[in-house]
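Hey Z.,

So I finally got round to the adenosine-5'-diphosphate thing we talked about over coffee. Here's the setup:
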Amino acid sequence: MTTGLFFPTCAIFFSILLNVIYFSKQRVKNTENKLYRFLVVSNLFALIFEYACTFFSNNYIPIISDIFLKIYLILLLVWISIFVIYMTYITKKNHKILKPFWIGAISVFTIAVLIFPISFEQTVYGPTITGVPVNVVYLASFSFIIIWIGVCFFNRGLYFNKKVLPIMVYIVLGMITSIIQKLIPGLLLITPTETLVTFIMYFTIENPDIIMIEELNLAKVQAEKANSAKTDFLSNMSHEIRTPLNAITGFAEALKEEKDLPERVKEDVNDILMASESLLEIVNGVLDISKIEANKLEIVNNNYNPYKIFNDLVTLTKSRIGEKPIELIVKIDETIPKVLYGDHTRVKQVILNILTNAAKYTNEGHIELKIDSLIKGDICRLIVSVADTGIGIKRDKIDKLFNKFERLDEDRNTTIEGTGLGLAITKKLVQLMHGELVVQSVYGKGSKFTVSIDQKIAPSDVKLDKTLEIKREDLLKDEDIIGKSVLVVDDNKLNIKVATRLLKDYGIKVDSCQSGFECLEKIKSIKYDLIFMDDMMPKMSGTETLHKLKENNSNFETPVVVLTANAIAGMEEKYLSEGFDSYLPKPIERKELDSIINKYLNNE
Ligand code: ADP
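And the result:
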């Protein structure tokens, strides 16, 4: 082997390796990949032809030797052209304007290589090629690089980043090897330089896998941004809708309790309340699903009385069934412990969702609610089944039941209200509580949904929230509560009006103010028994006001309840950790207000 072939020999190993690595994997179909494929292949062929040329220089065969020489030079030309096109493409994506230019330039240079004569020259290191075509290749390389620099400047200036690293290496190495090549013509360095640059491109910068990872990362960041924007939007929307809804339900609730109300007005008020309830259900559903998707929904465990929940469920289902000719059959296993430890709000939500669906999608017959238990050690498995004689679900549609916003049999359901979120939320909640949800259904006959959730058994003497057991009628004439003073802090006048209206029913003295600053002033001179504080207020939020109240007054003892439309899941825990004593979401629910009044104003 001649000394001059030392570098091409090393290069050929690398080039074969690169071809194997590159073609052994499936690649994304994009322009960079297509161009790079040409680079890898043309470089390998150029090296093979360089070998062949060296052979022919020693064993000259007319015409055939010339053809091999010219093909070799054309391969060099192909490599440099594609390399510069590739670099132009990644620095300036809309390289299409340059396409006719590239085609023209490559054609001219190729024709020049083909028509001008070429010959070999022997040196101490081995043979070398001489003649005009060699200079044409040099000229092509030089002019293409100049054009690339021009394109960069034209676009936004040339600056160094990792994308331009291969071309920088090529420029520097190209200059060095060209000089060496001129001084020591037999040392074949040009093609190995191209191998090196192709190699650098693959392993450092433009490895298509790296592009893919970068694109995936970018897509991930964009998706995360979009998702958090969606969550923000939903929480704002929740706030915006809840505020007017608070006024609607608040006044309707107050009106409902008005004595001497004509029957027709009473019915209208009930309809207003029902419509507001549906609206609130929709808002809550959308918020729940977005929280679940953002992995922000947490399971909050507490001790609770399951029988209280079962009772509530039966009452709510009865009202949902309304006038329909449906019998509600309830079978509850009485061995279920009196106190369980778990997230009672979510357990209730899950069972209520399937009961509500049973009531919605059944026109006549019966709904059977069966609650069984399986006790193992300190764990009680609640097995809740809801069977109905409703419209049923087609076998092939069962899989779609849990897709969000998916409603089956839309044509039959047009008169039944729904968003298609209930079961998607139910399933996620059951998963979060490590439970199971099974559906059986016969189309046209009925469905059965079975949920099993494990709950811890709590000692039956643990103290439960006494507010669970209160009766509204008792509260309204409670001597302890009458005359107590409450401060309502809210920047929205309408909200103050609603709260005042609702609180007056208990015989409470209600004072109000519209900002945190006013609240701080009032507290200096008046002692209240309870404060209801809105959180989202301009300049000073409710949370900031609470912190100031506690800072200014080391023995500040008045309970402060956050009264907020910011009601997405997880907010209660956040507000309690900020120092609020309780959390009352808007729209204010009578029952929740009752329990707060009972807890803080009833001395018994
Ligand atoms: P929706 O708000 O529409 O009730 P869900 O997610 O709760 O949303 O339910 C999704 C779909 O599953 C419903 O639109 C309905 O077609 C079907 N479905 C749910 N429960 C029942 C049931 N008990 N009987 C018949 N179809 C049901």
